[in-house]
Amino acid sequence: MDLDVFRLCLGGNVFGWTADEEASFAVLDAYAEAGGNFIDTADTYMRPNMGASETIIGRWMAARGNRDELVVATKVGSDGGLSARNIAEHADGSLRRLQTDRLDLYYAHKDDPGVPVQETLRAFDALVRDGKVRYIAASNLSGERLTESLETSEREGLARYVALQPHYNLLERGRYERELAPVADAHDLAVAPYYALAKGFLTGKYRPGGADVDSPRAQGARAYMDERGMRVLEALDDIAAAHATTVSAVALAWLAAKPHVVAPIASARSVEQLEALLPMAALELSAEEVARLDDASG
Fold this sequence. Notes:
Blueprint: E1 9-11, H1 21-33, E2 38-40, H2 52-64, E3 71-76, H3 84-98, E4 103-108, H4 117-129, E5 133-139, H5 143-156, E6 161-165, H6 174-187, E7 190-191, H7 218-222, H8 227-243, H9 247-256, E8 265-266, H10 271-277, H11 287-297
Parallel strand pairs: 1-2, 1-8, 2-3, 3-4, 4-5, 5-6, 6-7
């Protein structure tokens, strides 16, 4: 894969949901001004107004005239599955909403056990051959299905998944590290973890006795407010203070220090939220700091 991406991937799941078009444009502008070029979205962001995120990103790229400077990733499969017909129809819909002639990275959003992997991969391969998609990738596949897909592509000469988007962060390590990391290593997959900040918990804004946080993800984030979560926050606080940076940046830099991780995905509904994330692009943790976070989250 020859996509040259910024170290932080901007998640588009908030666009058209908690960020209206004006706020989304402001975040996208600030991200691009900081050197960011990697934007992640999906055809179903955000239900029930499906396609809103792609539409906003497409309008922004058209207004700024910067499509060729960006790496745009989107997904298919959460609406209608991974049949050949559904992939072809949804790819055209994404291209239309994004106002572009190609998708740089096109993910299978989740597995569709009712469709053979050969059918899915042939549909993706046709899009690559037609120039509508540059590279294909996978999200939310089991290690077994991911391996089957990669082996099928190799055996049949089809486009292969070059990247993986797993649920992975300091507080969600088990499944990725046990089941998916070995596959990523064996097949040299680029990894872009989602929920990189554990639904906001790893920003440090959720604390025992702290003020209520105005966020639709607050309930999910508070689920991490246990002894382990507090250990992780303590380690993040100390390392952030040592680097004079944000807790969010340290949590993202921990992910970026892991093998094959090219760009953790994080979203921001305001420029202020984005500003807390951007320092990770230049932050390098020491081996001792990574080990401390490993121990705290283990």
